[in-house]
Amino acid sequence: MVAKALLFRLCVVLLALSSNDAYSQQVYVAFLHPLNFFESWQECNINGGYLASIESPAEQTQVEKAMAKARNQTAVYYVGGTAIGRDGRWMWIGLNKEFAHRGYRNFYHDELNNISRGQNCLTVGNWDKPNRDLIMAVKFILLTVCVAFFAINGIEGATVPRTKYLAVLQPSTFFEAWQECNSKNGHLASIESRQEQLLVEEAMSKTRNPTAVYFIGGTDLGRRGRWVWIGLNQALEDGTYTNFYPGEPNNLGGDQDCLSIGNWQGYSRGKWDDTECFKKLDGYICAFRA
User: Does the keyword Disulfide bond apply (predicted)?
Assistant: First the structure.
C-alpha cells in the first residue's frame, strides 16, 4: 500500500467567528504523534477537521508558525496533498480539490521527483535542508508531522444542494475512481439517505452492465472500522444511513478498506460491501451538484 510513512500531524483549526457569520479564521495546530498519511487524515477528521491544504503564502506562513510552536524543530509534517490514483495529478484530500493550475506552490527545488516511485503524499518540514518550510513528496517511514484542519461550521440556514449521480463503467481502483470523479467536477459518491440510495440505484440501472459492481466514496483507511466519505470528509456516524449487505462490512482477508455497491452474485444490487481499495472493480459512482 502507498503512503506508509509515519509522520506527526499538524492541524489547522477553522473557528467560526459567530453562529451566523460567513467568515472563519484558520488556526493551524501541530501534533507530534507518529502516523501514516491515512491515519493522519482520520485523526484530523475525528478532531473535527481535515488534513491541511496550503493554497496561498498567507496559509504557508500560518503553517510555519504552527510548526515553530512544536517542541520538535526538525520534524516533518504531512499535509493533505496526494496523487494516489493518478500519478502527477495532485489533490487536497481534505477539500476534494485538485491543485489549482497556476496556484500557490512551495516545493523544494528538485521536487516533485517521485524518486523510486510511490511518493504520492506531501509533507512540509525540515529535510536536513536550511528551509524547513518547503514541501516534498514521500512514502518512506519517517518521524514527521501531518497537517490537519479542525472545521467548525458556524453558518446557519444553508440549503442542502441537490445531487445527481452517474454510474461510470470503467475498471478502476478506489483512488483512480476518486481522481476521475474529481476531474469531472464531482466527487466519489456518498450515500447518506434512502433517497440518495434510490438515486444511485437508478444511475446503476441505466448502464449496459446490470451485474456491475462499483466503488462509492466510503473508506476506513487509517482507522479500521471508522468509515469516512472521502468526497465530503465526513464520517459515517452511529445512527446515520447505511445499506450494508447482511454480515458486512466483514474485512474479509484483512484488507477491505473501501466501499462498493452493486450486484453480488445476481442479487442485492443496491447493498454495500467492503472491498480492497486497490482492486479494480467494474466502475464507480460519481456525485454532482444538480
Answer: yes
Looking at 110, 131, 151, which one is the last position of a domain? 151
DSSP for the chain reads ------EEEEEEEEEESSTT-S-EEEEEEEEEEEE-HHHHHHHHHHTTEEEPP--SHHHHHHHHHHHHHSS-TT-EEEEEEE-TTSTT--EETTTTEEPPTT----B-TT-S--TTS---EEEEE-SSSS-TT-EEEE-S--SB--EEEEE-----SPPPPPEEEEEE---B-HHHHHHHHHHTT-EEPP--SHHHHHHHHHHHHTSS-TT-EEEEEEE-TTSTT--EETTTTEE--TTS---BPTT----GGG---EEEEE-BTTB-TT-EEEE-TTS-BSEEEEEEE-
Mean pLDDT, residues 69-83: 85
pTM score, whole prediction: 0.81
Provide the pLDDT for residue 9. Answer: 63
Q: What is the CATH number of the domain that holds 230?
A: 3.10.100.10
Which domain covers residue 147, as residue numbers? 7-151
pLDDT band at residue 128 under the 50/70/90 scheme: very low
